Amino acid sequence: MFDMQCFHVLRESNEMAIVNVICELVRPNGYIIVVAGNLNNSLTYLLTHLLTHSGAINDEGSDDDDDDETAVGPPLLAKHMVIDPFLSRMNEDGNNPCVELVNLTKSRFNSTAAYSANGTLPPRCWIALFRRL
């Protein structure tokens, strides 16, 4: 199962429901890849996002040349927000986890016209690989 930017949006509605659906669609020993925005090391994004949405600053017309982070992009999640919901999902027996974490990698989303137009790098992302038990 390949999840590209669905989990990190749908989790806001009902996190465990989306984890349940993903786990139920994958057979035992199958793999789940989740690609989600990476909040870690995104202090510039976080501060800009918080201040903009609180009304403290207006980011329109900003001449900030920070090419490392951008307020344009996907919702961002901390590491535990990506892996904990999957690792806490139990099998039908209620005693064993449904999945194991095989690998977690930090990366960046592919470049798009929006990122290029802002002169910024694409946002960071997590690539989590789970195996269904």
Write the layout of secondary structure elements.
Layout lengths: L1 E3 L2 H19 L5 E8 L4 H12 L21 E2 L1 H9 L11 E10 L4 H6 L5 E9 L1
Parallel strand pairs: 1-2, 2-3
Antiparallel strand pairs: 2-5, 4-5
Class inferred from helices and paired strands? alpha/beta
Cα separation of the termini: 14 Å
The low-confidence runs, each spanning 5 or more residues with pLDDT under 50, are: 57-70
Number of beta-strand segments:
5
Number of helices: 4
Largest sheet: 5 strands, mixed
The sequence of SSEs as H and E is EHEHEHEHE
From the alpha carbons, calculate the radius of gyration and give it in angstroms: 17 Å
What is the 3D form? Answer: elongated
Average pLDDT figure: 81
